[in-house]
Amino acid sequence: MDEGDDDHHQTLENGGGGGTSIHITALDGVVNVNSLFTLAAFVGLAWNPSAGATPGAAPCDVDFGKLESDLVSFHVLAFACFLFSSLVALCLKQAIRAHHPRRRSRHAGAARVDRAALRGGIIACAAGSVFGCGFLMLALVNLVQIKLGRIGAAVAPLVTLVPAAMLVYTAIVLYAFTR
């Protein structure tokens, strides 16, 4: 391997600081959280939005057909984003494990992982999770509108806390990305 190849690869020590086990643990966390959100999106797709709606409580300008269509669209988009993020995380885990020298020889050592691919994969996982959360939040806002006929105080915590959490998550991912 020439010197130029070393710029694109990072040696990850198993169990060491910044090592393989940390990346795999983080990717496991992404998959676990995305699995819960994927389940929520899937259950949302299976639910009949018209059941229990109170059209009499809605202002005249609320289009329930449009709200139901948007609700299903946002659930599908959230489902797709979480599934994308989880699949990328699982692929990264497999790539890390496949490139670990213990899998190929008797010599224990460090895994050689393409740093650019790892970073790109982590950003793709984070982007999928963030967009999935955004679409799931929009689906819940539509659900409240269908149930109540208007956007009320019930969505205030949703539209403030979820974007705040997504900003914190993005900041932490970007911080980790630069380290």
From TrEMBL:
Transmembrane parts of this sequence: 72-96, 117-141, 153-177
Keywords noted in UniProt: Membrane, Transmembrane, Transmembrane helix
UniProt cross-references to PANTHER family, sorted A to Z: MATERNAL EFFECT EMBRYO ARREST PROTEIN, OS07G0240400 PROTEIN
Protein name: Uncharacterized protein LOC109719397
